[in-house]
Every structure is written in structure tokens, then in C-alpha cells.
User: What shape does this take?
Amino acid sequence: MIDAIDVDRYLRFDRHDWAELRAQTPLTLHERDLEALRGINDRIDLEEVVAVYLPLTRLLNLYVSATQNLHRVSATFLGAIAPKMPYVIGIAGSVAVGKSTSARILQALLTRWPEHPRVELITTDGFLHPNAVLNERGIMNRKGFPESYDTKRLVQFLREVKAGSSDVAAPVYSHVVYDIVQGDSVIINRPDILIVEGLNVLQVGTDSAEFVSDYFDFSIYIDANEQDVENWYVERFFALRQTVFQNPESFFNNFAALSDDEAEAVARGIWREINGKNLRENIAPTRSRASLVMQKGADHRVTEVHLRKL
Assistant: This one.
């Protein structure tokens, strides 16, 4: 939840007032599109897209245009050609809060702007250290915590993308084998907009002189009551038990045969020892650094939006 110290930093909108800011922004997604974008156990519908995401994409459209104009003005002053610099959007929040679905919806909507910008999306999972490294360092049980990421590599990746470099490679992570896919990569080639989604993208507590968020033009934190997020995590665990965990190659295949009571006990144990602890110690403290906070209720729907004052 947004705390008292943040009140002066943010403009606060309830769901209705935020939805009004959509203005004439058209809905360019259909139900079949949304079905492909939903994550496991997400309950987002087109009404949520209209009320929450269309106003947000309108705002981002204005921000991107203003930033591009600023680059053109600067280039004119310097007598140079304006470089193509991607607009970078960071999305942070807890495990199971809906970051990935939000990121995919934003990508889909932004790509459908009349200008047809090229919008790429990466998750910071690919910048986790391989399991072999985590095991060697004795921090496998802290996967997802700040120290489990190759932050220097992530910062270098963003530095190259922001500089307008072509064919910048990012490593690929498999949620099936729960590890980095050796030898595989995704190539980012001068997009108009890059969305970076991850747990700790707003972190500043590293040894580096640069932070991941230094390369963000705009950042979003998806927030919810911790008990609600824990319940969503347990629900997702149950859904995965019936799907991904059934794959013999899944790292968590041994969970597929658990009874309901056993599955709930395991899921809540993982939350208590890993995900909840990471949320409280590392993720939630970065909330006040976001440009915009989306507050969710127990039904997954966004109830309030807080926009940082300029």
C-alpha cells in the first residue's frame, strides 16, 4: 500500500477518475488477443484494459513524444542529427502480482499505436546467475533476491540498448528447467520502446556505480496487500501443478503428485521463506522510486493509480 510519506510525491486517482483520462484512446485489443496475453491464473478482462491500461498507454504516448521532441531540440542546438534512443519502461513488483501480464498488455497496446512503434519486451529472469553459480555461492534458496542477478551484465545490456546499439543480446531463461538456457539469447535491435520487467528493477542497493533504473525513462510498480499476493501465489502454484509441473523436464516435476494439502503447505512455505521475505526486504522498499504505482485489490483489479508529480 502507498504510505503517508509518498502522498506529497504522487497524484492519486481512484479507478473511476483514472479511467476518465482515457479520453478518446481506442481499444485495439480483442478478447482473443487478451486470452493469449493472460498469465497463469490471471483474471484480467477487457474492462480492466479499458479502465486502467488505455489511460496508461495514452500517458506513455505523450511522454514518449515529449522525450523524442527533447532529443530533437538538443540535436538542433548541437547541429547534429537526433539519435534514435529507445524509450525504456521498467515494471517492478512481487512474484505473482501480475507483472508479466501487465508488461505483455502494454507491449500489445503500444505496438498498436497509429505510429506503429516497435516495442520489445525482456524480463530480468534471463540475467539471473545460472543455477550452477547460485549453488556454488550457496544462495540457490535466494533466487530472485538482488544478489542472485548478474546486475553488471544487465546494466551493460541496457547501456548498449539506450545508446542505440544494434543487435544487443540478452540471455534466455526457462521456467520449465528453472535455469538459464545456455547458448540461447534474444536479440534487441533498436526498438522504439523497450519494456523491462522484473522483481528488483528499481533496486539501488548494489556495489555498482550505475543502477538498472538509471536507464529507465518511466517505471511502474504493481502493488497489492501482501496477504492477497500470497494467496495469488498459492493459486498459481496449484495451476502450475496441473500444467507446467506435469512436464517430466520441469524442475518442479516432483510437486505434480502432491495432494492439495501438501501443495498448499509447500507453496506457503516457499512464500514464507523466499518470496514473501524478498518482497518485504527488497522489492516493496523500491515502490516509492516508481513513476507510477498501480494498486490492486483482492480480486486482482486495479483500485487506485498513483502518478509521481513532475
The mean pLDDT is 93.
